Every structure is written in structure tokens, then in C-alpha cells.
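Tutorial handout. Part one gives the primary structure; part two gives the three-dimensional structure as C-alpha cells.
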Amino acid sequence: MIFSSLLFLSIFLVAVLALYYIIPNRTYRNIVLCIASLFFYAWGEPVCVILMIFSILMNYTAGLVMGRCRRRGSKGGARAALIIAVFFNLLMLGVFKYTPLVFDTLKSFIPSLQNTPAPIAKDILYKSLGGLIPALKNFRVGTENMLPIGISFYTFQAMSYVIDVYRGDTRVQKNPMLFGTYVALFPQLIAGPIVRYKDIEDQLMGRRESVTQFASGVKLFTVGLAKKILIANQVALLWNGLRGDFTSNGAIASWVGMIAYTMQIYFDFSGYSDMAIGLGRMFGFEFLKNFDYPYISKSATEFWRRWHISLGVWFRDYVYIPLGGNRKGLPRQILNLSIVWALTGLWHGASWNFVLWGLWHGFFVVMEKLFLGKWLKKWPGFLRSLYAFFIAAFGWMLFDFTDLPQLFGFIGSMFGAGSGGLVSHDALTLILSFLPLLIAACVASTPLFANLRHKLDGKKWAEWLDIGLVLIALVFCLASLVASGYNPFIYFRF
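Part two.
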């Protein structure tokens, strides 16, 4: 387990900020960030930090080799270095994240594996990496904490670096400490956004911190914290209550539950992204926006331009376009999109429901490319928004239920297959108690408040209002953290 929220806010963050700003030299500040980031990760996963260090050194070395080969005019050598680096990145991700899925799937087709204890079989694969990373030889996978936290995020970041170096889109980083800072940077290490090296290359050594930027970071961090603590965590109580006994809650309860989870996952993940971007600003970094009010989208395609923007851009630049994009005819474009969406789903977790979730979105994106997009333009704006919201919300049910029979059971309950009729008395009582919060969450997921605040730009009293609201939100968040303890983010498992 990583730092508890209170420990992070009251000790770790305060200490790192103080040490960072006491030191005037840029180089030493980056050393502080690098060491602090590795310590942050090692606090809960002392073994897995070895895996991260291996990833840093391996990708750093690959970049150096490609740079040297490029100077010597050896395209073959650079290509070989790229292939080796990508292979080891995918190998680590595959072994540490997808071994359970592969093994459990093989058990369905190979009867002799049925009686093989899964942890033993999986440990064999882990020990195959132990030859390269000795500290991992004793790493056991028979626990629920088998997945190194954030491995999907930092692996994709590292791969973007070596690919960009090979393409000539970015310079080789010759300082291992700076490269380590990029990969392990703790503000966005655990759950993104996925920061590409070329986007912060100049900031690593050339950023200039300011009071205005720091204040902006504190404000955005607090907004993200409030999204998580005051909205996502509270809406989760409604979703968990309705999810637990969906067979007897009634159809209406299941639909309300779907909306509740839709709000929970948005405020949970966008809250973390806001916190990461805000923390980055406190240290002088500017990370790109990761969410842009996705629930106001009017198509599935638009939804994915607004949701988890950094992941969508990554798959576009490093998978979709290299596969040919839309340059090789419509059939090939549909195939490319299908591959991208299957991989997008698989990236989120080692379970077939995630693949279904990715293909669900991919299906509508392809249909909009073929003919549905033209029809949508003729629909009233409200219907288009309702269509896009339903695709996203129903998709989250595929996302949340890793047990497929349970997933299909919940879907059935949405259409009256359960025993609760329209809505049971207990479910109705629970819904009514959370209804004001759910309505507020739905409104807050739109740009309504942001647009109202934008109209007040330049007014002195509005700035003081911002400060007051931030302080109030921070007090409520800290009070909630004291009462509730550990508050994991949904995307920590990816």
C-alpha cells in the first residue's frame, strides 16, 4: 500500500516541497525529485521499485544506443535497440499484469492445467524475469497485491521515450538522473496522466517556478482532492449499496446505480488527474490536460477526445498511425480501430470484461465512421448527448464487473430480470438519501460552474471567493480523510 492520504499531505509532500525550494540549484532540485519519487514508490512496494529502476536503466540505455547508432548512420542498430527495448517493456507488462489472464484462459482449453495451483504456475513466469532482476526471484503472485502499482502508466511513458528517440522526435537524454525523474515523477506516477518525454523535455532543466504557478497548483490540487473525497467517495456508497444486491433492488435501482458509478469513476479519475497536474505546477511542471468534460460529448468519438486524453493520444500516435491509420482504405481502417480498442480495453486490466469494454466503445466509433456519424448530425443536440452518455455509462458496467456471469446478471436486472420489480423499498430509501448529491455530481460533471467562474475573471472579489472556497474544501477533505483513512483511487489497479 502506498502512503495514506494524510501521511502524504501532512508529512511527505510538505517535506519534499520544503527541501525542493530550500535548494536553489536546478540540478539538485531534480535530484530531490528523483529520490523522493523513488522513495514514494518504494514506501509500499520496496521490491517493485527494483522493477521500476530496471525499466529506467533499460530504456535510458536503449536511448543512448540509438543515439550512438544514429550518429554513426547505423539504422539497423538503432532499430535493434528499439525492438529490444519495446520487447522488454512489453514483457514486464505482460508478465506482471497479464499472466493471470493468460493462465486462467489456458485452463479453459487445457484440461491438464485445471488442477495446477495458479500461484505456482504464475511464479514460474515471474522467476523467468528473476534471472534479469534477482530481487524479483522471491516475488510471490499468490496475493491480491501482485500487480505493481502504476506499471501500465510508467511503462507507456518509457516506451514513448524510446520510440520518439528512434523517430528523431526528441533528443537523447544523457543524464540518467533526469531520465529517472521523468519516469518516476511522483505527482503522476501512480495513475497518470501519461506524460510523454518530449512534452516536458525542456521543463526538466529549463522550468521556472513562480508564486502564481504554485498558487494555481494548490488550487487545482484541492479541486481534485475535493472531487475524490467529497464526490467520488460519497457517490461510491450509493453504487456499492445498489450493486451489492442488484437482483432484488429493482430495475430503476440498477439504472440509478449505473449513473452513480458513471459519476464515481469520472470524479475519481479526473480528480486524480487534477491533483497530479496541480502537484506538477507546485514543482514548476505543466502537464497536459487529461479530461475535458467527457459527459457533455455528442458522440462516442468525441467522448474519447475528452476522456483520458493522454491514453487516447498515446494509442493514436504509437499504435493506430503506425498500423496505417486511415491511409490504407476503409477495411484496413476498421481493422486498425478494432485493434486499438481491444488493446485499450486490455490495457485497463487482465480480464476479458475490459476487452469487452474496449470493443464496446470501438464498435460505436467504427459505426460513427461508417454511417452513424452522419445520422447523429441530424439529431437534436439533447438526443446526441443522451446517446453518448448512455454508451459511456453502460460501458462502465462492462468495466466494473470482472465476473462475466455477474455482469450479465446486472444487465438483466436493468431490464426487469430481478425480483425487485421497478424498485424495492430499501433501494428507494437509499436512492432518495443520496439523490441531492447525485444531482449535484451530474451538474458538476458539466462545464456549468467553470463557465460561470470564467465570467467573473478580473473581479478582485472573485479571487478572494476562490481562496475561501479552496480553504473550505480543503478543511472538509482533511476532516473526511481523518474519519475514513485510506482512500484508494480506482485507477490504482491499472
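Part three, for discussion. The chain has 20 helices and no strands. The chain has two domains: 5-207, 213-493.
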